């Protein structure tokens, strides 16, 4: 992990800044050295871009200094000029790097530094980049996969677990299993063909007699909500209207794709946009609800696609109600980088409640203990006809 991935540079890494007051170059939010700074147009206070974008997610449009509305502007030129004069020790100084780099060259150096650690795929030890190739070329725990017999074995076991004889025997065994499987599949296909022939005969009989089969109308109309019809929100997050798609929405907000990529590119918001192709995403924090507008009607919750915004292992509990009585409940564990399809198929509801809690905070991220936002890509419901 580099300073850039941490999105902050501790001030104690600044070297030889005798003529510069480093304290005046610190971010007002996390009090580390400014990185990729921007400023508030009203008070001209500079912030790290990542820090203020994160602040605005939790506090839409509000400047840290209580300005009426936060409007972004470029960092004042004199701040950028002072930052460019700084020299900073490498993030990997504790691993042995002795380089002192200019502020503007820091990102490039740390991404290429030979003293960053890489995990060996064999023994799983953390090895310095400069020693990695030499280590992996001789690591006894490195795994190989034979292209002929598909056996996976470690380098140390090559002479005993993957001899020519073992390889040939394994290939022969696989051919036998494949032949057996093919026979079973052929038998299934033959049975399926017989069934299709019988169905075809039955269809011809019905058609000859001019008979028709009537199907009853479905009990409800299935609707998939992807939130793309909500008003544009490229500059800020907005609340979903109280009445939307015939339902009442309480404490659910939505975000535009461009805003998510700009303000929180490493979060579950950006991950969800990559996977679903929406223009907007809905999200909630701690607790939210959806209910039917009419007291005499019901709806069905068929499924939803969701993931955690900031913390892995976040628990989302969904409960369904009818006339204040609990009818259904389901709890699922969400991850940040893996949107999950949750199939429920609950019907006869007049209200559903979402509650999020827990989660694992990555110590190297900017997530806080109360960051329990849940991202919803889409929601499939059934409305009474």
Automatic annotation (TrEMBL):
SUPFAM superfamilies in the record: RING/U-box (SSF57850), TRAF domain-like (SSF49599)
TM spans (from-to): none
Top-level division of the source organism's lineage: Eukaryota
Entry-linked InterPro entries: Znf_RING/FYVE/PHD (IPR013083)
Coiled coil: none
PANTHER family assigned: TNF RECEPTOR ASSOCIATED FACTOR (PTHR10131), TNF RECEPTOR-ASSOCIATED FACTOR 4 (PTHR10131:SF94)
The protein's name: RING-type E3 ubiquitin transferase
Origin species: Rotaria magnacalcarata
């Amino acid at each position: 992990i580099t300073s850039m991935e941490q999105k902050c540079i501790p001030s104690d890494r600044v070297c030889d800044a005798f003529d510069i007051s480093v304290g005046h170059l610190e971010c007002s939010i996390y009090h580390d050295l400014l990185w990729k700074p921007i400023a508030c147009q009203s008070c001209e206070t500079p912030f790290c871009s990542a820090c203020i974008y994160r602040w605005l997610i939790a506090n839409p449009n509000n400047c840290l200094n209580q300005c009426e509305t936060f409007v972004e502007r470029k960092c004042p030129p004199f701040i950028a000029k002072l930052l460019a004069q700084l020299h900073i020790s490498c993030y990997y100084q504790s691993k042995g790097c002795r380089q002192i780099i200019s502020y503007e060259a820091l990102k490039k150096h740390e991404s290429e530094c030979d003293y960053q650690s890489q995990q060996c795929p064999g023994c799983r030890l953390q090895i310095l980049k400069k020693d990695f190739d030499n280590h992996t070329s001789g690591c006894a725990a490195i795994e190989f996969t034979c292209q002929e017999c598909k056996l996976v074995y470690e380098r140390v076991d090559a002479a005993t677990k993957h001899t020519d004889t073992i390889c040939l025997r394994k290939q022969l065994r696989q051919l036998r299993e494949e032949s057996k499987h093919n026979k079973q599949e052929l038998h299934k296909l033959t049975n399926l063909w017989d069934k299709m022939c019988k169905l075809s005969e039955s269809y011809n009989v019905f058609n000859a007699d001019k008979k028709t089969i009537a199907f009853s109308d479905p009990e409800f109309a299935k609707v998939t909500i992807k939130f793309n019809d909500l008003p544009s929100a490229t500059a800020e997050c907005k609340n979903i209207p109280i009445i939307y798609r015939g339902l009442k929405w309480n404490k659910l907000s939505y975000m535009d794709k461009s805003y998510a990529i700009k303000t929180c590119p490493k979060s579950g918001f950006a991950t969800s946009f990559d996977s679903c192709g929406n223009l907007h995403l809905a999200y909630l924090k701690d607790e939210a609800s959806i209910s039917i507008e009419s007291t005499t009607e019901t709806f069905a919750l068929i499924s939803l696609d969701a993931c955690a915004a900031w913390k892995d292992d976040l628990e989302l509990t969904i409960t369904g109600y009818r006339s204040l009585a609990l009818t259904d409940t389901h709890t699922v564990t969400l991850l940040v980088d893996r949107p999950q399809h949750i199939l429920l198929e609950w019907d006869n509801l007049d209200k559903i409640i979402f509650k999020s809690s827990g989660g694992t905070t990555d110590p190297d991220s900017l997530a806080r203990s109360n960051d329990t936002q849940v991202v919803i890509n889409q929601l499939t419901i059934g409305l009474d006809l």
